[in-house]
């Protein structure tokens, strides 16, 4: 029997994958026709393609069967360990209900707090700094000498060391962080108004302030325009908006934080935005060489590095560590 796709389909899935989906649905008693598949491409992914798959059901009181399918892009093994990611997916599948909240007012702050509280397998140590150093080595191995100079890669080893020293604090909260909480990885069910976080390929233990910084930074992005690589930092949340988000984040677990606790986390998240700019800047350079998705990765990297040098004196002080001194050719 032929496979029939219905509804919106942006591009087609490989035939082999479609056959796997049919075999999967054949095991479910509440699917009338496993060959009747609705495919919807979810936008917002710059490394992989993600599709939402539905099997319609004639019974109005029964929800459609639905799964998410990721088709991996080329070269992504440079950024993360595939076996580690699969283990993360398997473990997170047991927490699916924990990643949902019926109250729309809770939204992402509540979900982030729940996500950070997950007890995941593996070492519970900060991954950020070693990952930055590994990506820097990879980026330098891919770039020409002129690109290394243009992007200022030779000085970023010192910058990573400086940030690790300046930002690491005794007693800082470490949690299981998503590390890529852009809007394309946040799903809201239109019926139940529950929130689900998807796409865990970069997830690891890190300071929770870093994950907050990443989410705030992603608010400057719009990946649905003709120039998705351009960041608009006028859309970066202002201090009051960040404070409200962090207050909701802290209170969602039943805490009653004082003003100083909220303010400290607001400031910590701002400082960790510097590490976030280096993280995605290096990601952009490597992606330009290993990924064939139509995205101007190098220009994206240039903007993230530019923002790093712009914000560093304001967040760490003008005399902390070396300045750019024209090392980056913007």
Task: Characterise this structure.
With 330 residues, the protein is α+β, with helices and mostly antiparallel strands. It has two domains: 1-71, no CATH class; 80-316, Alpha-Beta Complex (Aminoglycoside 3'-phosphotransferase, Chain: A, domain 2), CATH 3.90.1200. The protein has helices at 15-25, 82-93, 107-116, 128-142, 145-151, 156-167, 208-218, 239-251, 259-290, 297-316; strands at residues 4-6, 36-42, 49-55, 65-71, 174-177, 186-188, 195-197, 204-207. A four-stranded mixed beta sheet has the order 1-2-3-4, with no helix packed on it. Helix 6 (156-167) runs antiparallel to helix 9 (259-290), helix 8 (239-251) packs across helix 9 and helix 9 runs antiparallel to helix 10. The radius of gyration is 21 Å and the shape is globular.
